[in-house]
Amino acid sequence: MPLVSVVIPTLHRPEMVLRAIRSVLNQTHREIEVVVVVDGPDAATVAAVRSLEDPRLQLIVNPRSLTAAGARNAGAARATGDWIAFLDDDDEWLPNKLERQMAFVRETTLVSCLSRVVTPLATYVWPGTVYDNSLPLDEYLFDRRSLFMGSSFIQTSSYLLPRRLFDRIRFNVESPHDDWEFILRLSKETGARIETVPEVLVTLYFEEERSSLSSAATWSASLRWIETLRPLITPRAYSGFCLGVVGSRAAKQGAYAAFFDLLQTAFRRGSPTLYQVTFYLLFWLAPQRARRRLRALLRGQPA
């Protein structure tokens, strides 16, 4: 029986999922199984996965799409390992990812790691600040304190957690932010700690033009989502999400009528900081291209 089950959801990306699968099969930790979930009819991807002849690999094909959240749940339900890890089909692991993480595992712990983020413009290491469990997880994720994206970051492709812990909290298929919701409920409702291996063990590929199982949420869907979680999170985290995440999406989508409503909602139901309000104004007043140039200049990179 494998010790670690790795779940990879995918759809219409046969070349990418082969890269992801190979990065798991090449792990130095050998007691694994790989559960690939093709989330809907997709003959090309099914054929690509079946071309890999490895007894540790099993394939699930959903008759219809369940979304990334549902595909992860379906894969985990089939898994037989004591530990479960997740990998998105467009990401890949370094060969010692599981070996290094297994040294950190506990029965009530989700283990993450640092990620190398590759974009068409630059490459970064995220998170800039590792979560140390000294403040609420929601404040770590949503109370933005830096101009740079990725200063507070925990990505699904880095997750490794006990099977018995996953059985208590599943991914919510109705959620526009199922990855955030999963880890927040894990922390808030089970008391799980988040440990981070301080090494780059995952490579993430961002900002490439391609389809995804995870659709981008509208600003209004994100606002409705954070309302459902308000009993679980602090006022500071609420206002940080409202102004930072919802506000940036509303600005990007040109929803100018939402400007004062979001600001009023953040003050009425949250506890905005000066940093949060400043970033909110930047989202609306400075074009995205100008913000990117500013971040590049501060990093010492070509604008």
- The CATH class of the largest domain is identified as Alpha Beta
Q: Count structural domains.
A: 2
Secondary-structure element series: EHEHEHEEHEEHEHHEHHHHH
- What would you call the structural class? alpha/beta
CATH superfamily of the largest domain: Spore Coat Polysaccharide Biosynthesis Protein SpsA, Chain A
According to DSSP, the number of beta strands is 9
Strand order of the largest sheet: 3-2-1-4-8
Give a description of the structure.
InterPro entries: Glyco_trans_2-like, Glycosyltransf_2, Nucleotide-diphossugar_trans. Residues 5-129 form the Glycosyltransferase 2-like domain. This is Glycosyltransferase 2-like domain-containing protein. The chain is α/β, with parallel strands linked by helices and 303 residues long. It folds into 2 domains: 4-205, Spore Coat Polysaccharide Biosynthesis Protein SpsA, Chain A, CATH 3.90.550.10; 219-298, no CATH class. 41% of the residues lie in helices and 18% in strands. The strands form 2 sheets. The chain has a 5-stranded mixed β-sheet with strand order 3-2-1-4-8, with helices on both faces. Helix 1 runs parallel beside helix 2 (43-50) and helix 9 packs parallel to helix 11 (274-285). The longest helix has 18 residues, at 235-252. The protein starts with a strand and ends in a 5-residue tail after the last helix.
Question: Can I get a quick summary?
Answer:
The protein has twelve helices and nine strands. The protein is α/β, with parallel strands linked by helices and about 300 residues long.
